[in-house]
């Protein structure tokens, strides 16, 4: 008698969702958020959580309302909008890989973060090309380890006597509005300043930019919806698991905010490239800090592995749909799109060498916000949608666009340029492949052409 296929229970789906949020954002987003909004940045955490919940709701509605699942499909929106959403998703994942690698380097070897980041990208590209992926069991271990490391960090921070300085770990971050220069371009003691259209003092207006930085922690929540038929109870898991992950991660971020503010203060937090390591150093907890660094390294490597594999899968899917060159869809004997793995690896490596961690985070978040806005628009176009789903989608789309516009100007413009270039590439490729297919389909009636 054939053995029934294994179905993932809802509890495991929650673990998978948590593993998507327990990555780079927890270890790196609060520094630039504090630089953007000063002491107001915890409000940015709350705003980011609300935007994430809106995206989770729209993703769940799309997944359960039509056969295409969580992916945007033809008929949801005009082709130009769908193409923009697809390009934004791939761009966000590639930039997320760069951000994860740079944060990994900042925690593992603060004196040479870029070198370590490059090594990490090369290693993960090789692993991806051989078809290695994160299993639910590995995700469970990652969640447990991250919770342990963060609990230690929160305890050290909340028990600290007050803000202190830690030169060894609190290296200056790149000015978030200053451009694409590396993190070391700033001056010690001069916190990064977020911008809308020009530099502003950290305060309430910077809460929007702070929310954008914190959204880095919530950019991978579609993993549960992508499990689809592997879930034991899809309707329940797709609705609840990502929402639970958002709530748990938000609570952790707020606790971390309180601990970092008490241990480092706003200036120390805003200038730290590895905030949790800096917190351990200021709290005279260097031995305990090893645990935090190990937790950060594991979480960021997992984030790098997931981001690059998902970016390659998205590129291969676009290739099969005729939107990108056909060679990107080639797979190996293991079924993995090794050409897309290598191509996206090269793109991520270039961003790792050219961008600072802060800039990579901005590109990741802005591209993700564009994709989320397109996703919300798809919900608004579905016939027979309930009023509640439409209201959530409309508010989510508006919030995504407002927060994206509030991000630092030069990285924002770089993201717009990257999305435009990707959109043009897809448009030209689609038209070229469509003409080639139409030419092959035309029957040859001329005797000389037949002979030829």
Automatic annotation (TrEMBL):
State the annotated membrane topology for this chain.
Multi-pass membrane protein
Instruction: For this UniProt record, give its keywords in alphabetical order, as a comma-separated list.
Output: Membrane, Transmembrane, Transmembrane helix
Where the record annotates domain Amino acid permease/ SLC12A, the positions are 14-371
Database matches in PANTHER family = AMINO ACID TRANSPORTER-RELATED (PTHR42770), MEMBRANE PROTEIN (PTHR42770:SF7)
Indicate yes or no for the key word Transmembrane helix: yes
InterPro entries, per database record: AA-permease/SLC12A_dom, APC_superfamily
Please report the name of this protein according to its UniProt entry: Amino acid permease/ SLC12A domain-containing protein
| Transmembrane domains' residue ranges | 7-28, 40-65, 86-108, 114-134, 141-161, 205-222, 243-265, 285-308, 361-382, 412-430
Its localization reads: Membrane
Source species, please? Pseudonocardia spirodelae
